[in-house]
Amino acid sequence: MHDFLAPKKCKLRAHTKIHKSPFFAHMQLDGGSSGITCAKLGEAEIMAQAGIADILIANEIIGNYKTQRLARLAKYCNLKVTVDDLDNARQISNAATEAGSEIDLLVDVNLSGGSSAGDPMLEGILNRCGVPPGKPGADLAVGISKLPNVHFRGVMGYEGGLPDSSNMEKSNEVTGLALERLIETGDAIRDRGIEVDIVSCGSSTSYKVAAGTLGVTEIQAGSYILMDTDHHKFCPEFEYALWVESQVISLPKPNRAILDAGRTAISGHHGLPELRTPTAGMKVVELNAEHTHIETGPGAKLNRGDRVELVTSDIDTTTSLYDNFVVTRKGEVELLVPTLGHGKNIR
Predict the structure, then answer these.
(1) What's the pLDDT tens digit per position in 150-192?
(2) Do the Cβ atoms of 311 and 279 come closer than 8 Å?
(3) The overall pTM is greater than 0.70
(4) What residues contact residue 3 under an 8 Å CB cut-off, 6+ apart?
(5) Environment class of 180 (CB within 10 Å of its CB; exposed 0-12, middle 13-18, buried 19+)
(6) Which of 87, 189, 240, 277 could form a disulfide with 141 if both were Cys (CB 3.0 to 4.6 A apart)?
(7) For the chain, which domains are there?
(8) CA 236 → CA 11, 165, 233, distances in Å?
(9) What is the pLDDT of residues 54-71, one digit of tens each?
């Protein structure tokens, strides 16, 4: 990812919600990331405490308690946060003024055609936070530009929810259409006489299209560093670097093995986990709270006590279950890396 983006006009702003670890975030910065992205304020606090200076929180921060924390944190790093409401921007402005800090704001743009742009092709894009593209985003930028102790810096959009990994041509077309909405919003803001320094978007599944879109300044890819089965369908060039090691604990019938890892150990958010090393005649068929079921066909055999490595369908909701990564090289354990952002999901 770093090598691909190094010669491009846009920069990488690695998303750290994937690993929630300052250790890996520093490796990404050393590898060429211009800054980092966090999902939650609590994650940003952990990263700032570890000496990371350029942080974007790609989420809305609401309420006095959180905006006051945000304002205090901004004294210790270059802090950016997204907004999709002028009252929220005022709240952040008031907190920053009281704390004597400065905070950069990005307008969060909802790129979904279902909610805003009216293009049915875009209905696969995630429809969550953000103002509609175009004039609403420009109006919000104008309002932000009049507030003290906050500075409008740009726009952010997420073109996630790509429709079909089996039809990458269509997926890339949809991504391009969604990013056009983001670029058009930036242009609408410039038409109001306001500078747009940052156009932030992208993911590990869409980084090539985003990097080739004129006007995009940074890409928030994150899954590339560890990879899961859901993202791997879109970007198989990134290898699996994360897996959960489990153990066979029961053989209830000839063609079935039960592992000691279930949903409390590995996420099934985007489908069943898969075997790290595909084995003929062997596949995961069911996931319970505390167990994974493996079907074993002719010629495939597992014994009680055998170790089985599982790859998750969703990294974020798997790493959030653990206190540490066990880091290995050539089969030898080298160190434990704490997931210091673990437990910051709503904080």
Answers:
(1) 999 999 999 876 656 678 888 888 889 899 999 999 999 999 9
(2) no
(3) yes
(4) none
(5) middle
(6) 189
(7) 2-227 (3.20.20.10), 244-314 (2.40.37.20)
(8) 22, 11, 6
(9) 999 999 999 999 999 999
